[in-house]
Design goal:
Largest sheet of chain A: none
CATH architecture of the largest domain in chain B: 3-Layer(aba) Sandwich
Oligomer: heterodimer
Distance between the termini of chain B: 42 Å
Structural class of chain A: mainly alpha
Helix content of chain B: 10-25%
Number of strands of chain A: 0
CATH class of the largest domain in chain B: Alpha Beta
Largest interface: A-B, 23 and 26 residues
Number of domains of chain A: 2
Number of helices of chain A: 14
Largest sheet of chain B: 6 strands, mixed
Distance between the termini of chain A: 61 Å
Structural class of chain B: alpha+beta
CATH topology of the largest domain in chain B: Rossmann fold
Helix content of chain A: over 70%
Strand content of chain A: under 5%
Order of helices and strands of chain B: EEEHEEEHHHEHEHEEHHEEEEEEEEEHEE
Order of helices and strands of chain A: HHHHHHHHHHHHHH
Number of domains of chain B: 2
Chain lengths: 306, 365
């Protein structure tokens, strides 16, 4: 058809190279997608597939048939409720203590000259270079009945009887706070360093003394970092295993410890999976609620956009 | 909104050293009550340091600073009660526009209804009525600038400081804001100190300009005097375009490239001086046109054209004198004038009014 050919020619003439350019754009996008394919694959094999498997396991009875018995048991037995309560309790306490210790620490670091602050930051990060297990057992050596702290305390006459510092909630919290502190300090420090000093100058110029300038300007502006740090600490705490196991002495049973028990003692994969799924769902729920109250990107960035 | 009675500012012997660098070198300055005074200088001249000392953010080594009769040099910044517009505006990002402007009022215990009324009136004043509920990051640069201004004047301070507030805006908006700031100043009557490195901005806005360089006040005068009778070569070079020509004294006149020139002010008895010529103050005389010769009130400089540059509104003729001195002359680029512009290589006569034949000391900066 000569008419149609003429029309195509007309289009070609009106929009030169449009088709070729579109094809190039498409090819570029496909190439980019192709490059990220290995990463997608890795995430699927390492994260998504095991999760689906875990999910499936939790719905299987011992004989291999579909059943809700694991979930029923979670609801029926009050001991499970207590375990979840302990888990959230310990996590909240750890987070609270981390904030109480970490926020002032980050504030001091943020006010120091950069070089000094970096040296101090290395001290904060030093524990990261040691194995978590080693750190936990080190606390055991320090805190136990005949440990360093009790020996010194009694020798110096500060207290007469050995204090119960370990194999209980106290020991667990000491160990967990020590391990979690950098996760709080780093995002908070990042947020604090991103605060333009001119905001504080402006506050002073407008009549705010140092205390008011801190609470009305500095603290709110550091909030995204604090929320990010607190959330990271809290979520990491929910799945904590080693420290409560070693320093809790069987008195602090968190979900992870119960999962280990279910598998090691009872070889009950279904029950363990169900616990895992419930913890995952609760954590996701918590994250979802948290994200409703704050802007997530701002939080993860740590810094406040100007 | 009318501000409290404006106060004069008296600065005496302010000095601030950073190691060997003298950021402020014995600065004394009197700012009149209700005046718009601009601190003008290149970067690193000490103008911002001086402003920061006034605001209380930099502690000087010595000196005296009085607002009215009150010595404030050791007063903490939050007790000085002066409004300030920061270069990057420093609007609090976690507060909306109204909360930003209400901030200084809240700190002063103004009640809610008064606060609301005054915030609204401050917003009206900067032509942002109804923007109270906007978030700061939703505003354009010019709007932020206005909010920062509203925040600085809402608590009716008797002194307002501005640290290059227009430097982040594009040229057109900047020129518009210059005029608005000026009008606002007239309306409020506050003593205003304005820092800029933009000489045109300083000339446009100020009652008086203090030219600062090397931590010292080089000249303090009205824009016209600064432009037409600069105190030294630095001031002349920093403000506007100018050519500097070597001269020798000859009685009450001076000789420049072999030509005798009459001057308005007798040359100083000692020290080298230079003839300063602003290109737009020169009249380009046609080489042989009758009736276009020099007038009695004018000096004439003979030169040879080296370049003619068309610049839209004006054209610039660059020429060289007999002694090799370079001189530039500017004319309005009207069709008639363009037709008479001399060509490259041709001789040209440049006429300069006697009262605009100004000598400057060959020093400064």
């Amino acid at each position: 058809m000569p008419g149609a050919a003429a029309a195509t020619d007309a289009v070609q003439a009106a929009a030169p190279n449009a088709r070729g350019l579109r094809a190039d754009a498409l090819r570029e996008r496909m190439a980019l997608l192709g490059l990220s394919a290995p990463a997608f694959l890795l995430v699927f094999i390492a994260m998504v597939a095991p999760m689906i498997w875990l999910f499936g396991l939790s719905f299987l009875a011992d004989n291999g048939s579909f059943s809700l018995e694991h979930y029923r048991r979670l609801i029926a037995q009050p001991s499970y409720g207590r375990i979840f309560l302990t888990t959230f309790n310990v996590s909240l306490l750890t987070t609270a203590i981390c904030i109480a210790l970490g926020y002032p620490l980050a504030y001091v670091l943020s006010q120091l000259p950069q070089r000094v602050a970096n040296l101090c930051l290395i001290a904060v990060l030093l524990p990261f270079w040691t194995s978590l297990l080693v750190r936990t057992y080190a606390w055991l050596a320090l805190l136990q009945r005949k440990g360093l702290i009790n020996n010194w305390g009694i020798e110096l006459g500060l207290w007469d009887e050995p204090l119960a510092l370990v194999h209980n909630l106290t020991g667990t919290l000491i160990g967990m706070v020590h391990i979690m502190l950098p996760f709080l300090v780093l995002p908070v420090l990042g947020a604090m360093r991103a605060i333009d000093r001119d905001y504080l100058k402006a506050a002073a110029n407008l009549g705010a003394g140092p205390v008011r300038a801190f609470w009305q300007i500095f603290f709110p502006l550091s909030m995204p970092g604090l929320l990010a740090g607190a959330l990271i600490v809290f979520i990491l705490c929910l799945g904590f295993y080693v420290t409560p196991a070693v320093l809790g002495g069987g008195k602090v049973i968190m979900v992870s410890n119960q999962i280990a028990n279910d598998i090691e003692l009872f070889f009950n994969w279904g029950a363990a999976s169900a616990l895992g799924v419930v913890l995952l769902v609760l954590t996701s729920l918590f994250l979802f609620i948290a994200s409703r109250f704050m802007r997530f990107e701002a939080m993860m960035g740590g810094a406040h956009s100007k | 909104m009318k501000s409290r009675a404006a106060v004069p500012i008296t600065i005496r012997g302010l000095a601030k050293h950073y190691g060997d660098v003298r950021a402020l070198d014995d600065v004394s300055l009197d700012v009149r009550s209700g005046e718009f005074l601009t601190l003008l200088g290149p970067s690193g001249s000490g103008k911002t340091t001086l402003l920061m000392v006034l605001a209380g953010f930099i502690r000087p080594d010595q000196g005296s600073l009085k607002f009215g009769d009150t010595e404030v040099i050791r007063l903490a910044p939050h007790k000085r009660d002066i409004g300030m517009v920061f270069q990057n505006y420093a609007l609090f990002p976690h507060m909306d526009v109204a909360a930003n402007i209400a901030f200084p009022l809240k700190l002063r215990g103004v009640n809610a209804s008064d606060t609301e009324r005054r915030v609204a009136s401050a917003l009206e004043m900067v032509k942002l009525g109804g923007y109270g509920a906007r978030r700061v990051d939703e505003l354009s640069g010019g709007q932020r600038q206005r909010v920062a201004l509203a925040r600085a004047i809402v608590f009716e301070p008797s002194i307002v400081l501005m640290d290059e507030p227009l430097s982040a805006l594009d040229k057109q908006l900047r020129e518009q804001m210059q005029i608005e700031l000026r009008q606002l100043h007239v309306k409020l009557g506050t003593t205003t100190i304005y820092v800029t490195h933009d000489q045109r901005e300083a000339l446009t806005m100020s009652d008086r300009i203090a030219v600062i360089a090397g931590g010292r006040v080089q000249q303090l005068d009205t824009p016209r005097a600064i432009y037409e009778q600069p105190a030294n070569r630095f001031v002349a070079e920093f403000i506007g375009e100018s050519s500097f020509l070597k001269v020798t004294r000859e009685g009450s006149d001076v000789r420049c490239a072999g030509q005798l020139l009459r001057v308005s002010v007798a040359p100083p008895a000692s020290g080298p001086s230079l003839l300063m010529v602003r290109p737009e103050r020169l009249r380009i005389l046609g080489p042989a046109l009758p009736g276009d010769g020099p007038r009695n009130s004018e000096n004439v400089l003979e030169a040879r054209v080296t370049e003619v540059i068309y610049q839209g509104d004006t054209f610039l003729v660059q020429a060289v004198l007999a002694d090799g001195g370079r001189i530039g002359a500017r004319g309005i680029a009207s069709a008639g004038a363009m037709a008479r512009v001399p060509r490259v290589g041709e001789p040209v006569r440049l006429a300069l009014r006697v009262e605009e034949t100004v000598l400057v000391a060959d020093e400064g900066g």
